[in-house]
Amino acid sequence: MNVKDLFDLTGKISLVTGGAGKYGRCIAEGLAEAGATVIIASRNMDHVNNVAEEFHHRNLNVHALQVDQGVHASVISLKNNIITQFGRLDVFVNNAVSRPMKDYNAPIGDFAKSMETNATGMMDILREMIDLIEKSGGGSIINIASMMGMFGPDLSNYEGTNMGNPAPDYFFHNAGLINLTRYLARIYAGKNIRVNCISPGGLFNHQPERFLENYCKKVPLRRMANNDDIKGLIVLLASKAGEYINGENILMDGGLNA
Questions:
Q1: What is the pLDDT of residues 168-224, one digit of tens each?
Q2: Residue 22 — pLDDT band, cuts 50, 70, 90?
Q3: CATH number of the structural domain 3-251
Q4: pTM higher than 0.85
Q5: Residues 95, 17: contact at Cβ < 8 Å?
Q6: Taking Cα atoms as reference points, which of 111, 128, 16 lies closest to residue 74?
Q7: What sign does the CA torsion over 64, 68, 74, 79 have?
Q8: Contact 178/145 with Cβ under 8 angstroms?
Q9: Residues 130, 77: Cα–Cα separation, whole Å
Q10: Is the dihedral of CA 178, 174, 203, 26 positive or negative?
């Protein structure tokens, strides 16, 4: 098969949770540019509708649906809406994240709230969407974790800023998601379902100048990730080009942890 055809996603139905957020928007754009029909889902329906409309103006096939990942009935409603409107699901990019815990000293109840969405809710939506993909004949699951699920925090990045220490729940649930990826790849062996994970480094989002200076001098590429950096990797894992990649966690950090 021609290499261009290997990366073609024409006819594929893809779901991106958190699809109107920082990485979600880039991911949805990459999938749609590769030819996929893309569903972006979030709690904030106004937000995903606005993003979908922007993509429509560029002739990209992107649709908005609502889901609250922490509520089982909402997850089931999303699943039923996908079946009704699109008939199948081929690719699920598990990208949504909630951040109720702001730092190490936040109330312990904030940790529990985080786990409702980022652990229990994430397992719930993964099971339901994988079930839909299995009934559709197979496909690709792509979990979006973080390098913070692989390494402890580098507190020197925050020197000279008032950003404070990073929240522990983010490290906790991303580390779990990375190994859950391996677990699911084994559980669904022989069912034409691949499960992989991407662990990005920092995405540029107009952080304080001192943070950018501290961070980027440690990265061999001397910059944070931009909006396009994840798109090619997403399309690889979603397409025939990545058909023999399974159970992997891919660190995408510009060489920071090389």
A1: 999 999 999 999 999 999 999 999 999 999 999 999 999 999 999 999 999 999 999
A2: confident
A3: 3.40.50.720
A4: yes
A5: yes
A6: 128
A7: positive
A8: yes
A9: 15
A10: positive
